[in-house]
Amino acid sequence: MPAPGTQILIETLPRLMAPCDVAVVGPTYAEHAAAWGRAGHTVRPVSDIAGVGDARVAVVVNPNNPDGRVRPAQALLALAETLQARGGFLVVDEAFADFEPVESVCPQVGPGLVVLRSFGKTFGLAGLRLGFAVADSERAAALAAALGPWAVSGPALAIGRAALADRPWLAANAAARAGDAARLDRMIARAGGTLIGGTRLFRTAAFPDGPALFRRLGEAGIYVRRFAERPSQLRFGLPADKGEWCRLSRMLR
């Protein structure tokens, strides 16, 4: 089911279920836990899927943001089956999966599984406001009813259809972004950073002077993601062109 961005799906899913216990595998994108909490659910952070326990709903970002950790599809499907037996379901957020060698669970979607797919990250078109929920027909219909008619614009649907059908572009850019990620890893290492992980669209590393480096980069007009609970870690996006690569390299040196 198409939606005006994945964020609205993250907000809407929790409102379609009576309050229950929800396990969010993290550390990960904070809006998942926040959205379930705002809808009245009891949210429990866990470090791995083995810690889901007796929760009725679990959320897994695969590959994970910000460390790029990947869970095997078989383990996710087994968890979805367990949650379905309790009257719940598993949410798998595959926002960064397009360029990664990750086995998607989309083909196995059923009553116990909802998969969220992004569009803007891969294609650099966040402003188009397009995302997808892949779910069984009953839950997809409930999401569609909650969002109402005309949730996604006609131009967004047309652009999305054309872009997603361009498999050669996806393959070529997956390879190109892998090269960019490796280049960024080398720059981070030369600057004294220790790579935590990431995807082909971002890299997360720990630095001895993380807060000070964040400030120096910001003063140079380079914004990276910082984490209040892990101040030594910074997440870097990919520079867009030669000038930006050079500027980041100078600042890291």
TrEMBL record:
Superkingdom of source: Bacteria
Residues covered by the Aminotransferase class I/classII large domain: 4-238
Entry keyword set: Aminotransferase, Pyridoxal phosphate, Transferase
Pfam families, per the entry: Aminotran_1_2 (PF00155)
Its EC number(s): 2.6.1.-
UniProt cofactor(s): pyridoxal 5'-phosphate
SUPFAM superfamilies: PLP-dependent transferases
Single GO MF annotation: transaminase activity
Family: Belongs to the class-I pyridoxal-phosphate-dependent aminotransferase family.
Protein name as catalogued: Aminotransferase
Source species of the chain: Methylobacterium trifolii
Gene that encodes the chain: hisC_1
